Each structure stands twice: as C-alpha cells, then as structure tokens.
Amino acid sequence: MASEATTLQSGVLKALQFPIVVADVLRKRQVLKKELLKQTNLVPTRIAILGGSTTTEVKSMLELFLLAQGIEPAFYESGYNRYLEEVEFENPDLWNFKPHIVFIHTTWHNISGFPELLEAEVEVEQRVRREMARFESLWEKIHTELGALIIQNNFDLPRLRPLGNLEASESFGRVNFVSRLNAEFANYARNHSRFLINDILYLSAQVGQAAWFRNTYWYNFHMALSPTATVSLAHNVAAIVKSVYGKSKKCLVLDLDNTLWGGVIGDDGVQNLILGKDHPVGEAFLDFQRYVKDLQQRGVILAVCSKNDAENAKEGFSHPDSVLKLEDFSAFKANWDPKPENIREIATELNIGLDSIVFVDENPAERDLVAEQLPEVAVPNVGADVSCFAEVLEHERYFEVDKVVQEDLNRSAYYSSNAQRSAGQARFSNYGEFLASLEMTAEISAFLPVYLERITQLINKTNQFNLTTRRYTSAEVAAIAQDSAFITLYGRLADKFGDNGLVSVLIGQIFDEKLQVDLWLMSCRVLKREMELAMFDALVEQCQMRGIRKIVGVYIPSKKNSMVAGHYASLGFSPVGGASEGCELWSYDVPATYSPRTRYIRRTAEALLAAPSAENESVPSEV
Amino acid sequence: MNRDEFLLEMDEILDLPAGTLRGHERLEELPNWDSTSLITFIALAETNNGASISPGQIVTCSTVADLLRLAQAESGSC
To answer: With CB atoms 3.0 to 4.6 Å apart as the test, which of A18, A395, A600, B51 could cross-link to A435 if both were Cys?
Structure first.
C-alpha cells in the first residue's frame, strides 16, 4: 500500500491537488486516468449525470477526481438538456443503469423563466413555486424509483444584469430570483436526507465570473461552464462523493511554531508570541486558529506534532489570545523525535489510519520529510504565509462532510476520555480487572430511525474492524432497517469515563433457517473492550427468537481488515468450504441454550430488542 | 510556445508517445482527435497564447501544423 501511494503521490495526485494547474490537467488527462486506474481496491460506484447542458467535460474531469479519491465511477450520461425528460419518461437505459448517485448538472440557463420587468411579487412567488414543482417532481421520482442519492447543483448567477444592481434587490430582478430559488433548494436539502447541494454559486465566486463562463464554450458546445470552471466543479462534486463513501480525512495534525502562532515558544516565551489583533500577522494566526477550532467543533480530530519541549509547547496555549486550548487536542507530541515517527504514534494512539491524517507545517523541510516517509498522510503545501493556510485546506476539501450528526460534535471528547482510559489501565496488572473497572454498559438493538445517519456514516468509514467492507448508501440502510428479511443491530457503548456513542453495526440476511452476516463492523475506539462479544450475544438471542439454526459469517479480506481474519474462529465458528476467491465463509450452529460471552459489559435497553412486526415495519425511512 | 513545444503538447492531448507528431499529420487520421481533445486544444490555446479560437476556425485546419499556425495567429478574448 505504501509503495502504491508513493508512486501515485510523486506525480499523479499532485497534478490534481491545490494549486491545480488546469492546463496541466487538461493536457494530461489521458495519462492521469491510466495511472489512477492502476490503483487497487478502488471503490466502484455508478453515477448518472443528468445534464441541463453539455456534460462531456464534466464526466471526464469528474472521473479523474473520483479516481484520485480511490473511487472508480461508471457513468450514465443523459441526452443533452434532457435531465427532466429522462426521469419523467423513465428512460430504460437510465433505469437499467441503477445509479447509486444521480448528479443533476443544471445552471441558471435551466431556469424555465425569469420574472418579467415590474412583475408583481405574488406572481414572482408563483413563478418560484412552479420552478420548485418541476425540480421536486424530478427529485421525488429519483428517490422513490431509483433510490439514488441526489447531488444537485444550486444556481449560479446570470452573466448579464440589464437592471444593474437592482437585479439583486427588486423581486423581479434575476439575481434576486436566483437567490430565492437557491434558498428553496437549501430548504429541500435540510429536510431530505438523500439530497445534497453542489454549491456552484460559491464555486463561481471562487473561480470568478470571467473564468466561470466563456462565450466560446457556450455558443459552440453549449457548455455552461468553461474548462477551468469544470475542473473546479468536478473537484467539488468528487469531494461530496468521497464524503458519502467515508473517504474524508479525520484528523488534522498541526505544528506549533509559526503555524499556530508567530515565533518560537522555546526561544521567545509565551509573552512574545505573535498572536492577536494588535499585529497583522498575529491577527492572521488568530484567524487560522479560529478556522481550526471550527473544524474541531464539527468533528475533526486535532493533534499536535511539534519539535519542542513538551512543557514549553503546552504553555503556548495559555496565551490570552489563543483560541485553541490544550483540551482541543486529542493527541499531543512535542519532543525532538522525527515528525514521521510522532505521526505514526498519533495514528496508533487514536486508532486511525495514516490515510486519515492531514499534516500542516510551515516548514517545507518537515513537510517534505513526512510526505516522503508517510505517503499515506496528506501534506498540503501550505507555504509560509499563515494567511493562506486555511485557504489551502479549504481548496482540498479534506474534511468534507455530507452530514453533521451529534456524534461528530462529541468526537474530541471521546478521544480525550480514551486517554483517561489508557492511563487507568496502567494501574491494573490484570486486563480483566481493568475492563471490569470501566463499568461498561451497552445498548444493542435493531436499527432505529434516529441512528440511521450515524449507522450509515460508520458503514462507509470503518475499515479495520470490518468483516466485509460492504458500503451502503443511506437509502439502502433505511430499506434494510424496514425489511423483516434482515436482522439489524447497532451497539452503543458507555463506561464511567463517558459515552463512546454508537460504535458497532451488524446486518444479517435471513435465508430459511440460516442467517448470513452481510456486514459486521466496529469503531476502533472501542477495540479490546469485548464489545464484539456483546454484539454476538445479542445476535444469537435474535436467532434463537426467530428459530434460526445456523449463522454464516462472511470474511472478505482487504488491505485494512487483517485484524479480523480470526474473528469468526475466535467465536467458535467453523470454516466452510466452497467459498469464492477472496471470500471466506464460516458457520456456527445456534445452540438451544446459550451462555452469553460478555463478561464485562452490562446490556441495557433489552426491551427494544424485538423481532420486527407489521407495526415496526412502518418506521419511516427519513428522519 | 515554439513548434516543438506545441507538438509535444499535442502528443499529450492525443495520448501519443512524446515525439510522435511531426506536424504533417492529417487531423482526420489522428486517433483520439475528438470533441474532448478539440476542447482541450481551444482551452490550452487560450491559456498558453491568449488565443480565442472557435471550432469554426479549426474546421479550416487540415494538419497539426495548421493548428499551430491558428493558435499563434489569434489573440484577445471576451
């Protein structure tokens, strides 16, 4: 895996990273595609692009940026400007394609009619409603009949403004009309879980109007976006798709001196650090800290990796203007060891992969060393100007999310409480005594609507303790939750140090008197707590209640899940011959009487663990 | 951009080994000379030379060398 990452990092991926040289990407697209297709373990997906304009370039660029994220797309492209008709009239080619994702590439050109000059407000509102009805009909049909996730462009602004600035303020103004439609689109996105906005209004501002739309491409090819804009759009859509597939980064590792504050804490002391509004550079550091804090608050794990004495390094956070505090960091490495070693230790401590980490350091030598020795770690070239650090992180969309759930807001607390658990373990000579001292409780039950978002998130992000690495969209998870042919289990784990949240998911499909475990995963934050035994106890009980006599376990080896190669053997399963290559089958006969394996976890919410009935199957799929 | 640089760039656009094109090649006989490479050519002419080229002008070109002359001849855009 490391050699593959090295090969890709050295040339190919850099071409698709900030700062992207559009000319290079256009010129080398064939070579880039060939190189990217050499990766192993690409995640396949089917994406239907429904266009309100020519989409050839969109498809070409999107393919590159998805491959760069380890996702291999198969595409369906609608006919020119037939985004509505192909769904309304159920084009058999589209229906047979069965897309996982439908990307609707519309722009302001596809607004069916702008308000007339001096049109009354009530008529403008009716026009908004008619426009929304067109799109909502399209979206609802895609959801109900194709079951796909929708990525929908909002609207960019018309290039010309006959009314000048009044376009923005008058209700019949075009800019005003686009703003109202975008607000309606956003409202729809807030209220529908399988619908995401691709914010081309923002992208067009970022790229600039003059570069976003070019007459040559519109009049000759009916491309609503220039090639430069198409690269930006494709990069953004790929970021959305990667977040859906759980490939966004999880952890930001930061240097300290001249990265989070100006100056060297060991030499200058905390009182002389450049940080705060009284100094232009200090204000820039303050704004960067605020940006990092914003990331932390919505679930990005923070860690420090600094060449400093530890006590000096910590003192920097006592600066009165420091927005970031020591407790914001879930790992802290301040010593004189090489940074690649420290980053490896951070990954081990946090139980995350190196490919989940972004490393930010103003020192190019340190960046180069980490990039060379840890090619899985993302090391953006942030330069030396702190005022640009956040922009570089922004451009790469490392931490893109498709949803923020309550569990994300508590992530730092989980990791901090893990540090307390680890410290507590040192006091016990016997690991069992340590586990008993944690006073663990688990809530294990069939999928509940309130947890579907988190369950989907775990399914798409968990790699190590994952028996099959099967990925499901939120629509698929919701459908499984309502289907009595499946046994579903989620597991939450808490202890005296805090609540670890929802950490384990299991899906089994019933075939006569057998249950095949299609998916079983667990968050690495609760490894070695015997949570998997608690889940197995609950699974056996469910099987006994339903008269299931045999459980078939499936193990599909991957690059990252070797830790669970012996999982089914450890539970007493026997290997089954005749499995296909790359897939192991294991079998367990459900006994008439069963003694729970769990020794240190007390299960709660037992009453929720019931076989699905007609009443339970009416649970709605959208929260 | 000089002639050699242009030919190398066209090799890349058309996914040909570097040094393949000499300039005399007829466009209609080139593999991968399609709408995608046409758009790439137009985009790169604008980026590299500030040239604003339309497909209508490209239709008048028969060879790779004709494309070079076209890219070098145009300037200004809106």
So the answer is: A600
Tokens encoding A440: 């663990």
**Cβ-contact B41, B24 below 8 angstroms:** no
**In this model, does residue B2 exceed pLDDT 90?**
no
Q: Which band of pLDDT confidence, cut at 50, 70 and 90, is reported for residue A434?
A: confident
Q: How many domains does chain B have?
A: 1
B39: nearest CB among A28, A215, A227:
A227
This model of the complex carries an ipTM of 0.87
Q: Residue A98 maps to which CATH number?
A: 3.40.50.1110
Check: CB of residue B48 under 8 Å from CB of residue B25: no
* Inter-chain touch B54–A57, beta carbons under 8 Å: no
Mutation pick from B39, B47, B78 vs chain A, by most beta carbons of A within 10 Å, is B39
The per-residue DSSP string of A221-257 comes to H--SS-HHHHHHHHHHHHHHHHHHTT-S--EEEE--B
Cα-based angle A68, A74, A75 (whole degrees, multiple of 5): 105
Q: Report which of B78, B44, B7, B41 is spatially closest to residue A21, judged by C-alpha positions.
A: B44
Q: Is residue A543 part of a domain?
A: yes
Check whether residue A178 and residue A262 sit in a common domain.
no
pLDDT in tens, A330-355: 999 999 999 999 999 999 888 888 99
Which residue range is the domain that position B32 belongs to? 3-73
A287 burial (CB, 10 Å; 0-12 / 13-18 / 19+) is middle
Residues A356 and A457 in one domain: no
Q: CATH number of the domain at B44, please.
A: 1.10.1200.10
- Cβ distance of B39 and A23 shorter than 8 Å: no
A498 confidence band (pLDDT: 50, 70, 90): confident
Half-sphere exposure in the Cβ direction for A283 (13 Å, CA): 4
Domain count, chain A: 3
A261 belongs to a structural domain: yes
Judged by CB atoms closer than 8 Å, whether chains meet at A216 and B39 is answered as no
Do A233 and A305 fall into the same domain? no
The predicted model scores a pTM of 0.80
Residue A57 is nearest to which of B39, B44, B52, comparing CB atoms?
A: B39
Please check whether residue B49 touches A, CB under 8 A. no
Q: Does B13 touch chain A (CB under 8 A)?
A: yes
pLDDT of A153-179, one tens digit each?
Answer: 999 999 999 999 999 999 999 999 999
Provide the CATH number for the domain around residue A511. Answer: 3.40.630.30
With an 8 Å Cβ cutoff, are A26 and B40 in contact?
Answer: yes
> Residue A428: inside a domain, yes or no?
no
Contact between chains at B40 and A22 (C-beta distance less than 8 A): no
Structure tokens at A451: 């947890």
| A611 band by pLDDT with thresholds 50, 70 and 90 | very low
For chain A, what percent of residues have pLDDT higher than 90?
A: 74
Provide the residue range defining the domain that includes A50: 2-244
In a domain, B45, yes or no: yes
**Residues A71, A201: one domain?**
yes
Average pLDDT rounded to a whole number, residues A520-525: 89
Is residue A609 very low, low, confident or very high in pLDDT (cuts 50, 70, 90)?
very low
Tokens found for residue A210: 């003059």
Average pLDDT along chain A: 90
